[in-house]
Amino acid sequence: MSTQHNTLDCIQPPVHKKKELCDMDYSQDPPRILSNYLVHAPKPFNAEPHLPLLVNAGLITPTDVFFKRNHGPIPDIQLEDHQVYIGVQSHGQSDAGVEWKALSMNDIMTRWPKATITASLQCAGNRREGLAQLKEVKGVIWKAGTISNAVWSGPRLCDILKDIAGVPQDLHNEMIRNYHVSFEADDHVKEDACYGSSIPLRKAMDPLGDVILAYEMNGQPLTRDHGFPLRVIVPGYIGARSVKFLQKILVQPQESTSFFQRRDYKILPPWIDSSNVDTAWDTTVSLGEMNVQCVICTPMEKEVILCPKPVTVKGYAISGGGRAIYRVELSVDGGKTWEPVDKIEQTPDKISGMYWAWALWEKKVPKILTTSEIVVRAYDSSGNMQPEFPIWNYRGVMNNAWFRVNNVIQMPQPNM
Amino acid sequence: MSTQHNTLDCIQPPVHKKKELCDMDYSQDPPRILSNYLVHAPKPFNAEPHLPLLVNAGLITPTDVFFKRNHGPIPDIQLEDHQVYIGVQSHGQSDAGVEWKALSMNDIMTRWPKATITASLQCAGNRREGLAQLKEVKGVIWKAGTISNAVWSGPRLCDILKDIAGVPQDLHNEMIRNYHVSFEADDHVKEDACYGSSIPLRKAMDPLGDVILAYEMNGQPLTRDHGFPLRVIVPGYIGARSVKFLQKILVQPQESTSFFQRRDYKILPPWIDSSNVDTAWDTTVSLGEMNVQCVICTPMEKEVILCPKPVTVKGYAISGGGRAIYRVELSVDGGKTWEPVDKIEQTPDKISGMYWAWALWEKKVPKILTTSEIVVRAYDSSGNMQPEFPIWNYRGVMNNAWFRVNNVIQMPQPNM
């Protein structure tokens, strides 16, 4: 019997049950080009590209360089079998009372206009290493490569929610102001029955929000590592909200109850650590928009440059909420004096005008001394700037302190 | 002959000519309650309320406590004579080619629904004093009171621009993405022919942008000091964009050419000072959204508290772009250890859900030692936080470094 349903049928989506860790099967994970990555963990596969690859590839990160963040095995989903379930839960209504509708991937790919958005995704844990150096943190100890930029295509979520879930388009509607959209993946993860997350309904319905359901990345069908067959792209937000392997969309009066919305991805206050963390989750808000960030990708810490010529320092900068990068300043004396970078390249979305994609910048530095500390900092269009020093938080998220590179050695090419 | 025109007439608005400083007449300025204010300059009148008044009045600042920022004499405008001129300039079109339409104040007050927005205005120069202590800056040396919160009422600018200027409502329209709305005041100022400024057209047309033309403040007609008979309210932006004494609205492909858009209100880079400032204006972007800010209003520096009981530390916090204040942290040891404040009060707009109004916060501190440095810092909903130390810029704008209060003396009431 076919699992395909007509959109208007009222049906129940499959219910995921949490698996024991020992039942997690990673044998069907896709093959990967490991040479591009610093692999932090094989199961689940978590890897960030080497920093120079990020800037040398140009504004669009090739798919096989894009960072990979997983919480479980990559599900093996068949395009023709996959269904996306959409429902609305009103105030006080039980989960069982929700009327679901199902869309096939063919529906997703043909019923609405295909939007194309260039957007960077950044893990909230990017640069966690800088906080781990201050005090023990919980999480993958990411360096600064847990960010990448790609071109994503698929229907706008606002169109689907309007047509299938009857969500009003008027941004002044009370529902838009108070509701959330929860996403669930068709996967199994260590922490919960499946990966899940939510965003405010306002973000989903805002024509300037540019939230899409992407089935293409860089002009090709999504790869399994990046969410095949369908993922949410929530530009301007932390990567955790761009749920992969999308299976369920629920419009509801509260945030997702998933572990990843309620027990993770929050900037816990500095007085919260492993001893008292359970007291803090419910009083700490979930992360949404990214903060302003800037990183030097090349040269790297302790790099030896065998060339007497000026060195081109390169890196990325980004802010959240569609805010532009307005200025990048570089110091080669540990922050005593600053100069503008030579060039900042950033392109707004061609329809909404929002800045969802990172800026790449570069600056020629005449000579790097072994005593030079190279520091970078950026301003965004809200006048926010990165803090000079990192502020520790237990989950090690949102570290956007000034980025520093030390111990670069520049010397002439030795005689061969 | 009446100066009233039918809306559909094509007419020319009056052209302001720059006045010599010696011709500025301040004799018609309104009377003021000076005791509420620290007056920085009488002509033009620039004054900020004493900090404790700001928090003790509650979330809404009384009109006679609200800070006053002027660039020239207060114009003496008659409600029944005042006209607001609205035009659209297309690419390459000369100023003379613009077709203007005029609205009377009666039109403004009756033809569109009256929206009511509670929004804080903050001068970009708030806390300039903190930057002046580092190096010479240009501008009024404001302390931390150049911010206030009021209830504003009037029509939405998006409605007027749609009906009178034919601006499309579709936020994906190319014009929305690329154009600006310039405002000019019916006044005379020192720096230019009149006060002027602009905002992106997208901000004006966004239903979540909440830009209004206000003729009421705190339920009363605007006072002359606050822009009678009509001012723009651009919530979430620096105060400089909320133009008072509004006379002209021009939709155009570029930012306002006013001094106040092009030669002021920019975060100049730290290597720019009075010696080279002319090289930097055109390459430095204009300010729009506010950054994240937090200030202790009471106790004040060097305050003597004659009471042995716990002291309630109070202050405000705000961010730009409608972003909420998510956390306020207080330290009484100069930033070594932090605690949450006891209470944060902030209310989103009841229609759009955006956070345009400041948060007021307070915390009981058991005892303040003479050696205590009280420090506060806030996080907003984009995960941005204030910088620990101020970064100097020549115009002394957007200083949002951690706010510090020293030399508070707490002692028992002396025997009488």
UniProtKB/TrEMBL annotation, chains A, B:
Domain Oxidoreductase molybdopterin-binding: 71-259
Keywords: Metal-binding, Molybdenum, Oxidoreductase
Keyword Metal-binding tagged: yes
GO terms for MF: heme binding; molybdenum ion binding; molybdopterin cofactor binding; sulfite oxidase activity
Domain of life the protein comes from: Eukaryota
GO cellular component: mitochondrion
InterPro entries named in the record: Ig_E-set (IPR014756), MoCF_OxRdtse_dimer (IPR005066), Mopterin_OxRdtase_euk (IPR008335), OxRdtase_Mopterin-bd_dom (IPR000572), OxRdtase_Mopterin-bd_sf (IPR036374)
Name the record gives this protein: Sulfite oxidase
